Please model this.
Amino acid sequence: MIGATLVASAAAPRIVEAAPLPIPESEQKPGRPIPPSEYGMPSKFEASVLRRRTDVFVNRQNLSDWSMTPLQSQLGIVTPNGLFFERHHAGVADIDPKTHRLVIHGMVKQPLVYTMDDLMRYPSVSRFHFLECSGNTLADWLKVASTTVQQTHGLLSGAQWTGIPASWLVNEAGLQPGAKWVLFEGADGATHTRSIPLEKVLDDVMIVYGQNGEMLRPEQGYPLRVLIPGWEGNVSVKWLRRIKVSDQPWYFRSETARYTDPMPGGKWRIFSFEMECKSVITQPSGGMKLPGAGMYEIQGFAWSGRGRITVVDVSVDGGKNWQEATVEQPAMDKMLTRFRYRWNWNGNPTMIASRAMDSTGYVQPTVDDITKVRAITGFVQHHNGIFPWSVAANGEVKNAIA
Amino acid sequence: MRSRSIVAAVVIAVVAAACASAPRMSEKPPGPAAGFGKPISEADIATWNIDIRTSDGRGLPPGRGTVAQGKALYEVQCLTCHGVDAKGGSVYGPMVGGIGSFTTDRRVVTPGSMYPYAPILFDYIRRTMPMDKPQTMTNDEIYAVSAYLLHLNGLAPADAAMDAVTMPKVQMPNRDGFIADDRPDTRAVRCMQNCR
Model:
């Protein structure tokens, strides 16, 4: 009777189940016993939710390559460790924490060396931060290249990081007068290295060994990495083995020939570290199909390397009119933030997009805004334009960037 | 009691001053009074101390290599991936050409067109190449391969030799091609109605 009342009072007519519900098999036998020990894995029915290399830009080797997070399947703001995107320059290093050492030297009063036991003896700090590759979305600004949001925006993930403030180690070694830049170097086959301004290091940079409640995965730098909140992913050097202090940047290949932005007049913008405020709709997104007109919750992510997300607007008419979405709490400093917007689709073809604003007042630009001030060519880095999806009358959702 | 309260007041004042001058640090707990690092000498770090300050070559080690030596090494160690005369091979694209392409809409990025400073070649080859066994080449070999690549890019003569003195002096075409981060460079507004 209760069920009948609910059906009668619902706004839309509902199809009545034609047959009595069967008793599920899972109720008629014991389940899987608990093994003596194991590392739990997702349901076999979620086997398609995988980190994937892109098939849009295919490298001819898979050592200096990347894999992308299935953002369309992520629930909440924390990316599971097995789905966190990867970008390596010489594959995944496999390092025994017992033999790993971190050195700090250069323009310091006393060079120091640390074992992992030394580092883990410090009081620890845990913080939530996103990481985004500077090349995220690089294939799609001039033409439609990708199908899914995993392919367009999947060089993006969020996690809770555990470690110690980098400033503690710097202060322990003691700075010499004139120190201004800090080198972080990995123990991988590329000894990947970047120059970072000392001011940032003393502000919020972390030396990290933990991610989402466990030790870093090998592909995230086990046993030690640096985490530079809000800045392009490749500066958060993995497999961290060395910190060196100097008065000038080094101008490595990784900060001149790569990760720089083509600008008008043949110029290149260098040390463009911050990942600017950006957002994307993940639900519905490219490759999905809406079953018909009606209510849908538009969902997505917004993030800013300069602070918190304060507002996200959504357009369901191709960018003509915008409505404020709900920003789900917590909306944390330099962390993935979720937004939600209830949309009653009338079944007509349209375009949907999101636009975020951060705590500095900066508003996510359109692709046209960016095209006016930069040279959009080649491997475009640091592009944070508004990204539209088209919805066809048959419900198919497609990349509508161009 | 009195001295303890004075100490407490001083601690509070110091913390308050730190917070006032750098509010973004307020969530960070103060470091422990005693650290756990062990002193180490620069001599004992020497094997790891491989960075070159590329703008002036500081850190370039002793050694020397010629274009001819580099060509011979390249053809054994590099050609499979990077191709004949560094024009691109089975795995990677060209490492020659591109100079003058940056004012077009097809910028070709190579060491010759892109690196502002020649010692980047030494730093990068030493830390990454050859990809299956990085950090195994001698300094002479790295200088030689660098000399060969500079020659192929038209930036060093066929009889050139590279060492810690000559390499920083190579004039790279993109030396002044970089500009500082001037973002935010867009000024989008939060238009809500009839935006386009």
Summary: The first strand of chain B starts at residue 38 and ends at 39.
